[in-house]
Amino acid sequence: MSSTALILCAVTVAALDICAMVLLLCAYSDKKSSRKYWKHFTGDMELTEQGRAYPLGCDEVIIGRHASADIRIPDLSVSRYHALMTINGGAWLITDIGSKSGVYINGNLIKEAVLHENDVINIGSHRLVFRRRRDKNE
Fold this sequence. Notes:
Elements: H1 3-42, E1 45-49, E2 52-55, E3 60-64, E4 71-72, E5 83-88, E6 91-96, E7 103-105, E8 108-110, E9 112-114, E10 119-123, E11 126-132
Parallel strand pairs: 3-4
Antiparallel strand pairs: 1-2, 1-11, 3-5, 5-6, 6-9, 7-8, 7-10, 10-11
């Protein structure tokens, strides 16, 4: 192999390394900004009940008894697929998706409702509170 070919190979490898580094930096920057964007919309919200916290980590959350539910409540008073929480217009919305016992927000039976911080959600015999996540040190 000639020295020209070796130099060309070395330059190619260096260029590929630089391209890979640029891609990694862009991906990291995008991930960081998407976390900030997501945090803006979710407001770091969670559902809590008696010492348990269910972080809302995506824009669509199914609550139910079924093993595939995002928030699984293994209790016969809860339907397999009881409620759906989504983000709509920057606010959390909860929808009853055909449950037998209904979804209650602050004591009112709803089909669909916008959630506000500290709303109490009754699903079956479970009382969940929609609130901002707290630090573990609090």
